[in-house]
């Protein structure tokens, strides 16, 4: 039985390798794009992780267009100005040719507002630079003890942290 078991094991490994190779060659791959064709959308782009991701993309010129989504328009405008100013200083240029930073104020916990934002962003893509990457990093937390937290607070957290990514 041991030789039969060994032969079956070798055969199964061979079959798995063949299947893996076929899948690797036959499955569609992400289309290769140049940085001039990259359009990155970042939810929660006005602070925290979202702002850090935006700053990295803009400073390192990793894409042509960055679209930031967050709730507060005034904060988004300030972030947009700061990112473009930093890029200009870093590159000793006008910054406009290298990267474009767009902003869109929206509450990620509002499904209707997110659908409207998505349509607006796609309609702005008349130059064929459709979104290629989305960073869903909008989120919040609550520091209250579990037993002291009201159920409505949990609902709010779920709408922002979970449904905000789904919408």
TrEMBL record:
GO terms for molecular function: 3-dehydrosphinganine reductase activity. The chain crosses the membrane at residues 6-27. Gene3D superfamilies: NAD(P)-binding Rossmann-like Domain. One of its GO terms (biological process) is 3-keto-sphinganine metabolic process. It comes from the Eukaryota. Keywords: Membrane, Transmembrane, Transmembrane helix. Signal peptide: none annotated. InterPro entries: NAD(P)-bd_dom_sf (IPR036291), SDR_fam (IPR002347). GO terms for cellular component: endoplasmic reticulum membrane. This is 3-ketodihydrosphingosine reductase. It comes from Eucampia antarctica.
